[in-house]
């Protein structure tokens, strides 16, 4: 049986040269690791609309615009993901963890000192380019 492929909208939210990261809860896939906020893209939803919905739900910010940064297809063994990563520099609101998740703003250069899912290494490389 083929593994399910999940399309995910991921936001690299940047403000004053810092990036917003959140901690995944223990029970989630890749739980306990840091992530860039985002989530699954629903059927008939654009990447931007999915990201806008997820960032409002998870961190209470409203994104105004976003630009494509990178797409990463990764096989975790139990699950294949296609991460559509958008760079967000234009948003309204102050980020807070609406799902009780720890959240922090990190200098770009410090990102690699946090533990992320494997696929995120390529995202961090793209941010630093
Ligand atoms: N949001 C997010 N997901 C990531 C990142 N890196 C990464 O491999 N993923 C994977 O993408 C998949 C979907 O993301 P998600 O769990 O946030 O989806 P969601 O918000 O719709 O959550 P839910 O199904 O837990 O309610 C997960 O399997 C997760 O492990 C990342 O930086 N951010
Ligand atoms: Mg999510």
Automatic annotation (TrEMBL):
Pfam families: NUDIX_4 (PF14815). CDD domains: NUDIX_MutT_NudA_like. GO terms for molecular function: 8-oxo-7,8-dihydrodeoxyguanosine triphosphate pyrophosphatase activity; 8-oxo-7,8-dihydroguanosine triphosphate pyrophosphatase activity; 8-oxo-dGDP phosphatase activity; 8-oxo-GDP phosphatase activity; metal ion binding. Residues 3-129 form the Nudix hydrolase domain. It catalyses: 8-oxo-GTP + H2O = 8-oxo-GMP + diphosphate + H(+); 8-oxo-dGTP + H2O = 8-oxo-dGMP + diphosphate + H(+). One of its GO terms (biological process) is DNA repair. It comes from the Bacteria. 8-oxo-dGTP binds at residues 24, 29, 35-38, 120. This is 8-oxo-dGTP diphosphatase. It comes from Pseudoalteromonas xiamenensis.
